[in-house]
């Protein structure tokens, strides 16, 4: 968030070079600071040695009067200077609105190249490593962004790869009553929690504020407040966005409290949390047509969240039935199942009309689960967007396919005639190796037309996941040659000294079937 201390913004970054400390402090109290990003980067950000640009505390905002968030906020994300640490490199907030798009403030990325920005998604603590850090490959600032008035302060960043984090809904004009004057809204960010010399926060903070009328905004900010802005905060002061929060979301909810909507982008204000000086946010609903034109995504009619009803608790069936309530607006679903090691066991599409009747959807996938603990999810989709549901834990108490067995490799048939594939037998590596260019060999599965290769380290963190297709496959995956009953790949990976486990999963047009049992090797 940009803070101004009088009505006309001025760039005083150059003055810092000639003012004494006393004069500089006086300038910071009496003048608005809008340090130009290009100047900052030229002075502080080099390719030889990365140093975090020390922007003035007035330049970018953070949550004041907030609390550490206790809610799941999968769409909340942070902008980080590439080549820097998560905490020290954070300079703005943003929000996921599609699998490869995040939205932020234009003043956050003004003068920056896409190659200088990473986005952290899926974690509320910056120093945590549980989320994703994804590079940006395209920056699109609003064409009507005004660097002086900070009007249309919105930008879109395209991610270099997709995230599976749940997106945040956009608030469209037809739902503008959800953000009417007097409505409560949430602000979120990692910015400073005190002003003016607070420290950036490691944990995501959020606070509740009130959306005020445009008339109040015009009375406070005069002609500096435009129709593309929202004024929100606490008129008595004490709660506000501040330095480090710029680009973060202003969110409202519907009557159910289940659906959240992005109504504003943290933009600018007079100081932080001052009485009679609420913050100013870019109004998202005025830019939805532009957002759709840039992203090529339509965001309306997003289906509701969905939750599995079964399986839950203990089940004796290694091939359980999955059921959930039918979701309005959803045209198809994708079911996921992860095991206790966070390995994805099942990922299958279904069309709504094929599996749903009388308000209930039911499927029985062919996948046979081994004895153990699992978590299942449903993702509902339509032509515009998707929504993740909450997970359901269940335990298979009877043994189906045991992925750890390594028998003679013969297939068996169940009583209903379904094929139960034998596990794929791995051959090498299974010992200590010294080369990072490693050849992995396994027995060919005659039913598989492509394979998925997994490699994880001793901390159970994946180092490498890759699809491979046989030569006669039409899939656009790296080709793999299988001869004389064996398949092999040579993967050039920079592996540190550690013990690793690798395994193979075979796939065909009917889904996936045979797992390998897993094989360990050590790099020294």
Describe what you observe in this structure.
This protein has 524 residues and is mainly β. The protein contains six helices and 37 strands. Strands 28, 29, 30, 31, 32, 33, 34, 35, 36 and 37 form a ten-stranded mixed β-sheet that branches. A six-stranded antiparallel β-barrel has the order 10-11-12-15-14-13. Strands 3-4-5-8-7-6 form a six-stranded antiparallel beta barrel. The radius of gyration is 27 Å and the shape is globular. Residues 4-62 and 399-421 have low confidence and may be disordered.
Question: What spatial form do the alpha-carbon principal axes imply?
Answer: globular
Biggest beta sheet attributes = 10 strands, mixed
- Beta-strand portion reads 35-45%
Structural class: mainly beta
The oligomerization state is: single chain
Taking all residues together, what is the mean pLDDT?
76
| Unreliable stretches covering 5 or more consecutive residues | 4-62, 399-421
Radius of gyration, rounded? Answer: 27 Å
Helix count, DSSP H or I runs of 4 or more residues: 6
Total strands: the figure is 37
Q: Which percent bin holds the helix content?
A: under 10%
| Distance from first to last alpha carbon | 49 Å
Short description:
By secondary structure, the protein is mainly β.
Per-chain topology:
Elements: E1 2-3, H1 21-30, H2 37-44, E2 67-68, E3 76-81, E4 90-98, E5 101-104, H3 106-109, E6 117-121, E7 132-141, E8 155-159, E9 169-170, E10 184-189, E11 205-211, H4 214-221, E12 229-233, E13 249-253, E14 260-269, E15 279-283, H5 288-295, E16 308-310, E17 313-315, E18 322-325, E19 332-339, E20 344-351, H6 352-355, E21 356-357, E22 360-363, E23 372-381, E24 386-388, E25 392-396, E26 412-413, E27 419-420, E28 426-428, E29 432-433, E30 437-443, E31 450-456, E32 462-470, E33 479-483, E34 486-492, E35 498-508, E36 511-515, E37 519-523
